[in-house]
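Hi support team,

I submitted a single chain yesterday and got back a structure, but I'm not sure I'm reading the token output correctly. Could someone confirm the output below corresponds to the sequence I sent? I've pasted both exactly as they appear in my results page.

Thanks,
R.
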Amino acid sequence: MNHPKNITTFISLILVCIHTCLAQDPQFSQFHNNPLVYNPAFTGHTKGSRFISNFRKQWLGLGFIYQTTSASYDANIDDEKRLSLGMQVMLEQESENFRQSTGSGLMSYRVGGELSGFTAGLKASYINRSFTTDGLKFIDQYSATGIANTSLDPLANSSGRFTQNFFDFSLGLLYEAHQNSRQGSVYNVNMRGFQMGVALHHFDKLLKGVNYSLPLPHLGVHASYKMPINLPWWYQDTEDESTLGFTGYFRSQGQSMMLDLGITTRYTPIVLGLWYRGIPLRTYKDIPQQDAIVVLMGYEQEKFRLGISYDVTVSSLSWRSGGTIELSLWLSFGYVNFKGTKAGDRHLPQCTKRTLFKPW
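Hi R., thanks for writing in. Yes, this is the structure output for that exact sequence:
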């Protein structure tokens, strides 16, 4: 019997998977509902302050834990709503033995007019990675007669937990523009609008030259376009939103590339979306870059939003993966009073008043 050989092969595959997971950033199907993860320039992109939480449980049918949880809070902090600050925590569990936790502080600054402008953002993070040998079986425990209870492997007889801690930095830039309504520069939820942004994650690793450590530098480019649905001009100022949005998000990290393309329709309070994730005709290490079809449903009000999505796997894992489920929650709050100014006296540019509380 070739137990040792088979076990060695299996462990090698596991180590390759672990290295790949550590090298790649986590992804969210509802990335548009988790904006601070994919571009720090979205910090403060709300009418006052907000709390966002996301939970993703991946590959439900494969029998192991692969889940990511994030929570963030961000707010505008000056009277002109140009400077914003935020904080975020993210927990990743890739199995019973591998975990990563990230704490981040974010800042953004916006320049521009009422209906268009640029925003630059910065994110500084502290990352902790941990690995434990608890529950693992080692090669010398396997034999033709069964599995031994103990191992002589030095790793098995070590402290059992290994950690890595380091700082990390990301940059982002965002441009937004909205079509003038018949009321001039007054914004309303059913105006046409366009967004485009770029983010460079882990850019500090590039400063170390070719010998940079994990995680790999990560480039993301995204664009969105929103348009009203069959609304005459005299209905354009309604508080209810009836729009159709198109979004694309491309990201590259190491040799891996991925593209999200989707369409979202809103008819307050219902949100429906359909997305494709993958790069047609491209292969990476002989594996086609086809990932998933994502179905999204949401319910939203002025200060509340709840979303749920399900990934139908179209990769080589197929239906055996059991798919992926993801939940998102948004809560919008009032202005943060840093200078003793009454909330009602604080000026808020109309383009940020309602647009970007609801990502496209």
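A quick pointer for reading it: The first strand starts at residue 49 and ends at 57. Let us know if anything else looks off.

Best,
Support desk
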